[in-house]
Write a structure and sequence with these properties.
Layout lengths: L2 H18 L8 E2 L2 E2 L15 E6 L2 E8 L10 E4 H24 L4 H30 L4
Antiparallel strand pairs: 1-2, 3-4, 4-5
Helix pairs in contact: 2-3
């Protein structure tokens, strides 16, 4: 093999692997957070951004908001289902509270009956709220 051929083989051995190496993949970010790292509890800034993330073939929508199911006081990426289910639970809680106010004007026997019904509704709502926290609002989802 000539010196020139050896030089070409040497140069090719350097550049061919470089050419075949995939280019660095720059991942999309939202509010400075890589999309692959977006989940409940990740700080997101103060905007009202929204992003759809595919997780195991399922699209999940996250919003930059205060997560009502955790004690953080800063906006974090929060599942849209957490926010909508929490809103519905709050509406139910408001209804129970308003009904309790109305019951106060009833006779004692009616108060007892309706308060028992409201207590049962409150117990069910407490279970639903706990499930929302666990299944939709918990950090890491």
């Amino acid at each position: 093999m000539s010196t020139r051929t050896k030089s070409l083989v040497f140069v090719a051995s350097i550049f061919i692997p470089i050419a075949l190496t995939p280019a660095a993949h720059s991942e999309a970010t939202v509010n400075g957070v890589p999309v692959s790292q977006i989940h409940n509890g990740v700080p997101c800034g103060s905007s009202k951004a929204s992003v759809t993330v595919k997780v195991k073939g399922v699209n999940k929508i996250y919003s930059c908001a205060l997560n009502p199911g955790v004690d953080l006081k800063v906006p974090t990426w929060t599942l849209k289902t957490c926010l909508s289910y929490w809103s519905a639970a709050k509406t139910s809680q408001d209804s129970i509270s308003q009904q309790r106010s109305l019951v106060q004007s009833m006779s004692e026997s009616d108060k007892t009956t309706y308060n028992k019904q409201l207590d049962a509704s409150q117990a069910q709502l407490n279970k639903v709220t706990a499930a929302i926290k666990t299944n939709h609002c918990k950090a890491g989802l």
